[in-house]
Amino acid sequence: MKNYFAFAAAAVMSLSVFSVPDMARAQTEIKIPIEAPPGHIKTRSAIAFKESLEKISGGKYKVSIFPSGQLMAGKDEVPAVARGQVQMAMPTIGYVSTFDPAFKLLEVPMLFESYDAMETVLNGSVGKELLGRLKKKRLMGAGFWYDGFVALWTKSPVRTLEDFKNRKIRVFPSEVLAKSTTALGAAPTAIPGAEVFLP
What we know:
By secondary structure, the protein is an alpha/beta fold. The protein is built from seven helices and seven strands; from the N terminus they run E-E-H-E-H-E-H-H-H-E-E-H-E-H. The N and C termini lie far apart (37 Å).
């Protein structure tokens, strides 16, 4: 039986985005900072969101997307939404868990057996409870966006735990992922996506 380590991103929004009376605004801009480059699936998903919302709202909402960390570093996205500097973010769970440690649950290795198991949890009571916790932080958890499962890429084969010894492994900024990598005997190096993926 396969077990997976899932990366989910929580889409977080400012509570004030949808609270302005219709008469008080001609158009509301929703700024979305994204750590990933333009061709990345996360950025392409944001573009699909932009196109849908602008069409459905009849132009009431304008979505501006800032890929490649051009607006801010990924670690700053969630606090920026809470402060009202931007209206929405699609951060990795590692960044959300620094804001609310309960989200570290979703970073635990081998937590889910499959995508179906992951979706059942994230779309069920556990996911709703986690997203609901964000209200205390002046955020609205809009949902989860799946960032895929962990894959290990190396130049030489890794067949046993011994093969991890003293090997430097890039991880995205996440306390849980870094400790898991250390437990395998490797040396984690936390590098944000904007510094790894070429735009």
